[in-house]
Amino acid sequence: MAESKRYISQEDLSKHNIRGDLWISIQGKIYDVSDWAKDHPGGELPLLSFSGRDVTDAFVAYHPGTAWQYLDKFFTGYYLQDYSVSEASKDYRKLVSEFSKMGLFEKKGHTAFFTLFSVAMLFAVSLYGILCSDSTLVHLGCGGLMGCMWIQSGWLGHDSGHYQIMSSPRFNRFAQILTGNCLAGISIAWWKKNHNAHHICCNSLDFDPDLQHIPFFVVSSKLFNSITSYFYERKLKFDSVARFLVSYQHWTFYPVMCLARINLFAQSIILLSSKRRVSNRGQEILGVLLYWIWYPFLVSCLPNWGERIMFVLASFAVTGIQHVQFCLNHFSSSVYVGPPTGTDWCEKQTMGTLDISCPSWMDWFHGGLQFQIEHHLFPRLPRRNLRKVSPFVKELCKKHNLPYNCVSFWMANVLTIGTLRTAALQARNFANPVPKNLVWEAINTHG
Question: What parts of the sequence cross the membrane (predicted)?
Answer without folding.
Answer: 111-131, 137-157, 252-273, 285-305
